[in-house]
Every structure is written in structure tokens, then in C-alpha cells.
Amino acid sequence: MENTKEFRTWLDDMKLDHPLVIAGPCSAETEEQVLKIAHELKDTDVTVFRAGVWKPRTRPGGFEGVGALALPWLQKVRKETGLKIAVEVANVAHVKLALEADVDVLWLGARTAVNPFAVQEVADALAGTDKIVLIKNPINPDLALWLGGVERLYKSNIKNLGVIHRGFSSYKKTKFRNVPQWQLPIELKRRYPDLPIINDPSHICGNREGIQDISQIALDLNFEGLMIETHIDPDNAWSDAKQQITPARLVEIMRDLRVRKPKAEGEALDQLKGLRAEIDVIDNHLIQTLAERMNVAEQIGAVKKSQNVSVLQDARWGEILENMAKIGAEAGLSEEFIKTVYKAIHQESINKQEKIVTSK
Ligand code: PEP
Ligand code: MN
Questions:
Q1: What is the reported pTM?
Q2: Do the Cβ atoms of 47 and 250 come closer than 8 Å?
Q3: Does residue 50 line the site of ligand 1, with CB under 6 A?
């Protein structure tokens, strides 16, 4: 990618073949490690080599990266393999050093993205650059904060901008290190349809096993690329050892991923049209049915008003939820889905009833 060529055009051209793949270790450890990995990634679908040089650690005392010392190693990677190089930047000093080293892709990490002061500092230091700049989602599931980061970078006249979806932390214990919460990147895509979006299954999964499935979901959702942590000796990596995969495994994953065309053609298109028409009819029914349900809820509200009983009846609500989860399960719908839908329906019913009960 010459920097004169727009990021988007470059991605679109490449996507005919395969998505953008950024791979490389969580951290640059030694010159030998970096070069070994890079040579194994040469002649694969990988086009950008990543390596964390400055590592933000949750707690002090962890490996904080080898620092600027690794920048010449990355330059050597580019020279020897033709791969573009990418590092994380979190402050002005990092940006200065990365630009001096002519790094091709600079990304802001999840811990930087949570802090508007830090994002602004980096945005100012990058103002007007032609380099590709990517911003990861903030650690917490706050779309406005992520959008704010994107907007700060746009305002700094960074032309080749993109985002990385790496999942969100959750207080609940889940099978993910960071829960994907796909609705957030989907909403971001809806607001900025031209903004390239790259998925980072490594930080979402926190393990090696889930990477293929998360990557496939991202491609099915039309993400433009993947960033996957890759190490020659994952078990002995100095950071994020559990989630890194070998270059050989990465090649297998890339081979098995189904890359979908952005739009259907010919017979498939006709079939899709028919199915979409069916969906439209069903959606219509759904809305009518919901409206009927709300109508009945309002009638219940009127009765509650006349009897002066409270709108929220905990026991009844628990019963509905339990029954619907059971019926849903029989119909092949997950409990999580039923609960989400019913919470929304119930909330709307309560709102309607509140209106009735408080009316004069
Ligand atoms: C990383 O990419 O190694 C990293 C530190 O990721 P994140 O900012 O998503 O935690
Ligand atoms: Mn990492």
C-alpha cells in the first residue's frame, strides 16, 4: 500500500481475494523472534506485521515492551519480507518515534481509547498524516466513547482511518476475555459505513480455540479485516501467551475461513429477494402482534387503576419470563434472546400502563 493510495481502495481491491490480515506477536521480544515470525508470515495472506513495542499493562511489573529498541527490528521485517509494519501508540513520544521509523500503520489501544485526553494528544501528534491509523474500541462497551475517538482522529485530518473491534470487558465471567457485543461495531458501521473495520479475535477470545469462529462471524458481518496475534512459540510468549497462535495455525485458519461476497448475484439474488419479502411479511405480523399485546396491557392498566394496584407485579413478570423461556426453548430460541426481547416488551407495557394509571 503506497500511502498515496486510499486505505479504502486498497482494502476493496484486496477484498476480492481475501480480507486484510494483520498478524504478528502481541509484543516484540527480540530481534530474532520478530524476524522469525515475519519470515513465516511472508507469502501468506498476511500483508501487515504487528508487534507491540510499548505494552500497556493492567498492573505494573508485567512486561512493558522493549520500547523504541524494537523499531529497527520492524524496519528490518519490512525490508526482508515486504510486509507493512504496525505498532500501538499511546502518547506523543510513541507517535514521534513511530513516525520517525516510518511505521506504516499506527493503532491506538483499548486502554488509550477510554481516555479522551490521551486520544486527543495522539490525534494532535498525528495531524495530517497519510499513515493508516486504527483505533481500537475502548475497554468498556461505550459506543459514544469509541465514536468520539474516531471523530477526534477525523478532525485531525487523518485520511486513512479505520477501527479495530477487540471486544469489551464485562464484570460477569464469560467464555470470552472480552465480550464481542457485536451490536456495537454493527452500529458503528451503520453510522460510518465507509470506515474500515477490523476484528481482533485474539483479544476477544483470550484463547486459541475460539479464533476461527470469531473470525468467521466478523467476515460474515462484512468486516474488512482481521488482526490476529501470532508467535513462533506461543506458550513461551512474554505477553498474552494463551491467545497467540503459530503462523502455521494462522494459515490453516485463513484456508478454512469462508470469504463471502459483499453482494449476491444472479439466481442467489432472486432467492434472496424472495426470502427478504417473506421476512418483511413476518416483520409486519410481529409489529401488529406487539401492538395488540400493548393494547391488552393498556386494558390491564385501566383495571389496575380502578383497583389502585401497583403497575409492576413481580410474581407475574417472573412467571411470564419463565414460561416464555420454556416455549422459546421448544421453538429453538435461546434463553438469552427470549429474555432480551421480553425485557423490552415488558418495559414498553409498563410504560403504557404507567401512562394510564397516572392519567386523570
Ligand atoms: C494488543 O493489541 O496487544 C493490545 C494491547 O490490545 P488491546 O489494546 O486491545 O488490549
Ligand atoms: Mn496482546
A1: 0.78
A2: no
A3: no
Residue span of the structural domain in which 326 resides: 266-358
Q: Does the CB atom of residue 203 touch ligand 1 within 6 A?
A: yes
Q: Which residues of the chain have pLDDT under 50?
A: 1-4
Residue nearest to atom 10 of ligand 1 (CA): 110
Residue nearest ligand 1's atom 9 by CA: 110
SS3 46: strand
- 302 with 347, same domain? yes
CATH number of domain containing 164: 3.20.20.70
What grid cell was written down for 350? 409498563
Residues at Cβ < 5 Å from ligand 2 ion? 26, 240
Ligand 1 contacts CB of residue 110 (under 6 A): yes
Domains in the chain, number = 2
Largest CA distance in the chain: 81
pLDDT digits (tens, 9 = 90+) for 32-75: 999 999 999 999 999 999 999 999 887 888 889 999 999 999 99
pLDDT of residue 24: 98
Residue 326 DSSP one-character state = H
**Secondary structure (DSSP) of 263-320:** S--HHHHHHHHHHHHHHHHHHHHHHHHHHHHHHHHHHHHHHHHHHT--S--HHHHHHH
In the prediction, which pLDDT does 22 show? 98
Residues 288 and 198 in one domain: no
* Ligand 2 geometric centre to CA of 228 (Å): 9
Q: Are the CB atoms for 77 and 83 separated by under 8 Å? A: yes
- Give me 204's grid cell: 476477544
pLDDT tens digit string along 180-220? Answer: 999 999 999 999 998 999 999 999 999 999 999 999 999 98
- Collapsing DSSP to helix, strand or coil, 29 comes out as coil
181: amino acid identity, one letter: Q
**Chain centre distance of CA 53:** 22
